[in-house]
Design goal:
- This protein is an alpha+beta fold and about 300 residues long.
- The protein has one domain: Double-stranded beta-helix (4-Layer Sandwich), CATH 3.60.130.
- Helix content is about 20%, strand content about 25%.
Length: about 300
């Protein structure tokens, strides 16, 4: 077993992990091998996974093979599963374990993204009063290359801000909404039902992580505007902060392998899918679960 405890960005406890773990980058991410996530998880192993989750923010479990039901069972070890405001092509809600894919209604690859918002930096469900804690994706079908997922460490990005910028954004709040997310990504407008189901919410731009106490920049594609600022100033500040967060020194690009099961912390990361594969001919299918978090502060 590995005795790896902390990447330079981590908060290691000095307690060895009961599994093989290898840091991937200083930005975040660790690879875990030798675990079967389809098997029952005892409390000790669950707690060790959560400890690694808080240290590395992104966990990559290699070589997994789970049914949707098994993924739901594993996911429930970490909290309450979250329902979704999105709708399938027939108008029905997404199932609790739903599919992230480039396939159209007939099951064929399409060059047009099925879920356009996935291709812009965002943190899951920030348009909820209680946004997501954790998202999990299980690779089912992958293109021969590409189809990567990119993460941005918003804690590192906050730490790198000038004292003047930290003072400027301290106390500012932004409005997040499903309607804004659809508009920002060029997707079809939110329906009236969806607007009623998910009205706009307000969260601080500087978020404090509830488990580690570290501060981060809490923005993304679901944001409409910053409260109390003129529209032009709000747009310019959002664009400036998003450009800052997306710099290479704050990002990790995950290159998927068959059987990868990836879980990440929405409270200190943004993420987006990359269109770096032949979407018109190659299949990309992943199963997704999301765990409800806590109100940002």
């Amino acid at each position: 077993m590995s005795d790896v405890q902390a990447a330079p960005h981590g908060r290691g406890t000095g307690i060895p992990y009961p599994f093989d773990i290898r840091p991937l980058t200083d930005t975040g991410g660790a690879e875990i091998t030798g675990l079967d996530l389809a098997a029952p998880l005892d409390d000790g192993m669950r707690d060790a996974i959560m400890r690694a989750f808080l240290e590395f923010h992104i966990l990559v479990f290699r070589g997994q093979s789970l049914t949707k039901d098994q993924q739901a069972v594993f996911s429930k070890n970490f909290g309450e599963l979250e329902h979704h405001v999105g709708r399938l092509p027939d108008g029905s809600p997404y199932p609790i374990v739903h599919t992230v894919t480039n396939l159209d209604e007939d099951g064929k690859p399409t060059p047009g993204a099925v879920a356009l918002g996935n291709y812009f930096f965002h943190t899951d469900k920030s348009y909820h009063d209680i946004p997501s804690l954790m998202t999990m994706l299980h690779a089912i079908e992958l293109p021969p290359s590409g189809g990567d997922t990119q993460f941005a460490n918003t804690q590192m990005a906050y730490d790198a801000l000038s004292p003047e910028m930290k003072a400027r954004i301290s106390g500012l709040k932004a409005e997040h909404s499903w309607e804004a997310s659809r508009r920002n990504s060029g997707a079809p407008p939110a329906t009236e039902e969806q607007k009623r189901e998910r009205p706009p919410v307000v969260h601080p731009i500087v978020r404090t992580h509830p488990d580690t106490g570290r501060k981060s920049i809490y923005l993304g594609n679901h944001v409409s505007h910053i409260l109390g600022l003129p529209a032009a100033e709000s747009d310019a500040l959002i664009a400036q902060l998003m450009e800052h967060v997306g710099q290479p020194q704050f990002t990790y690009t995950h290159q998927w392998r068959d059987g990868d099961y990836v879980m990440w912390d929405n409270r200190c990361l943004l993420h987006r899918a990359l269109r770096n594969y032949e979407m018109a001919t190659q299949r990309r299918v992943l199963h997704r679960t999301v765990i409800i978090g806590t109100a940002p502060y």
